[in-house]
Q: What sequence folds into this?
């Protein structure tokens, strides 16, 4: 089911509510029996260092375009209903939610696969960059080759 | 005119958010990179990095991509969102 009034992508500084997002995915949507959600959060450690905060930068315009391409590819590959991708930008602290991907489908397998696909592709294609603060130290994070291989497996 | 924008570590290394140039004699992204690298040592170092990514009009492209007046070209490091 494609609901053109449902906003699929949101880039925002504000936090989001998992319960509200699930309610929107389910609202007036009796044909989909599966709802799969993923939430990414700021960890307190990265590669052995204590993280105090993250600052996320993105490329407005390209971010939305690349996410909508990823969603379109997911819809071509799996029978899915609604999709929602939220990515926060700006300064975030330990435990804060960063990213949300929600997918509905008639049966669970399509929603599980599409959700993981969207997340794996977002990691390597969507123009976001994390700057990590570890006490006094502030560094841009390097991309991980493991993320490239996860996306390549699709 | 071609609008060129920079992001994340690249933006900080170059101390430049964006610039505009005429684009004459610049047929491809590779030409533009060579042109920018000739500015000074810092720019040369930044553009010598093989992991640098490029986008034209919000689509990720390779260095062979042709460019024309009116395009927005972006340079940035590998992405680290999610």
A:
């Amino acid at each position: 089911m494609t609901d053109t009034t449902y906003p699929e992508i949101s880039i925002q500084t504000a936090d989001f509510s998992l319960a509200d997002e699930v309610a929107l995915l389910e609202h007036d949507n009796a044909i989909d029996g599966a709802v799969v959600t993923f939430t990414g959060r700021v960890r307190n450690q990265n590669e052995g260092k204590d993280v105090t905060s993250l600052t996320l930068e993105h490329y407005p315009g390209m971010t939305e375009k690349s996410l909508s391409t990823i969603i379109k590819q997911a819809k071509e590959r799996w029978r899915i209903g609604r999709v929602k991708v939220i990515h926060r930008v700006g300064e975030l602290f330990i435990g804060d939610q960063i990213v949300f991907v929600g997918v509905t489908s008639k049966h669970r397998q399509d929603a599980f696969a599409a959700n993981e696909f969207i997340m794996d592709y977002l990691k390597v294609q969507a123009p976001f960059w994390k700057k990590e603060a570890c006490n006094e130290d502030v560094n841009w994070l390097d991309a991980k080759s493991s993320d490239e291989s996860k996306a390549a497996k699709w | 005119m071609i609008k060129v924008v920079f992001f994340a570590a690249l933006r900080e290394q170059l101390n430049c958010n964006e610039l505009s140039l005429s684009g004459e004699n610049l047929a491809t992204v590779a030409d533009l990179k060579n042109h920018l690298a000739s500015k000074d040592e810092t720019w040369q170092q930044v553009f010598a990095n093989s992991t640098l990514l490029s986008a034209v009009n919000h689509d990720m492209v390779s260095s062979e991509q042709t460019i024309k007046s009116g395009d927005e070209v972006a340079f940035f490091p590998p992405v680290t969102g999610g």
Q: What stands out?
A: The radius of gyration of chain A is 16 Å. Helices of chain A lie at 18-26, 62-77, 108-125, 145-152.
